[in-house]
Amino acid sequence: MGMSGISSVLMYYLKSEFDFNKNQFSEILMMVGVGSIITQMLIFPLVNSLVGERVVLRIALLASITYALLYGLAWASWVPYFGALFRMVYILERPSTNAIVSKASSSSDQGKTQGLVAGAEAIGSFLAPLVMSPLTSWFLSSNAPFNCKGFSLICAAFALVNFLTHFNHVRYRGRIL
């Protein structure tokens, strides 16, 4: 839900806070897209073979927390470009999650388990904009209770911290994922 929330309001936040235009949006999206391809094709196989999926997932979650905090506390228009570097690492969350889930479930339960993960992601993708959009609008307005334009992104970072701290307790059929 944390990353879905960030994705759902990020362009609005960057436009409102830093007056980003379509060229700046496309630069960031292109950086993340190209960087993500390189990360998944070259870096993930190498790092995964050295440390395993669980460590890669933790690194990806730490990168997403850093990403969210950088955007939420951004003090200049160059900070979102720097923060995009962490998005390129966060992209490793999905392949590492899928690998962990695949290894933890039996071959006959692969579809159910992957479906459960996809369902949880879908619920997060549905709920996140419902929470994040009004929160972002409120803190970008003059009616905000305190001056922190990126407060919604900081809240998303804390949601990711919560997930990271509870990651070791996730079980499927008695097995730790």
Automatic annotation (TrEMBL):
<dbReference type="InterPro" id="IPR011701">
    <property type="entry name" value="MFS"/>
</dbReference>
<keyword id="KW-0812">Transmembrane</keyword>
<protein>
    <recommendedName>
        <fullName>Major facilitator superfamily (MFS) profile domain-containing protein</fullName>
    </recommendedName>
</protein>
<feature type="transmembrane region" description="Helical">
    <location>
        <begin position="150"/>
        <end position="167"/>
    </location>
</feature>
<feature type="transmembrane region" description="Helical">
    <location>
        <begin position="28"/>
        <end position="47"/>
    </location>
</feature>
<dbReference type="GO" id="GO:0016020">
    <property type="term" value="C:membrane"/>
</dbReference>
<feature type="transmembrane region" description="Helical">
    <location>
        <begin position="59"/>
        <end position="78"/>
    </location>
</feature>
<keyword id="KW-0472">Membrane</keyword>
<keyword id="KW-1133">Transmembrane helix</keyword>
<keyword id="KW-0813">Transport</keyword>
<dbReference type="Pfam" id="PF07690">
    <property type="entry name" value="MFS_1"/>
</dbReference>
<dbReference type="InterPro" id="IPR036259">
    <property type="entry name" value="MFS_trans_sf"/>
</dbReference>
<comment type="similarity">
    <text>Belongs to the major facilitator superfamily. Phosphate:H(+) symporter (TC 2.A.1.9) family.</text>
</comment>
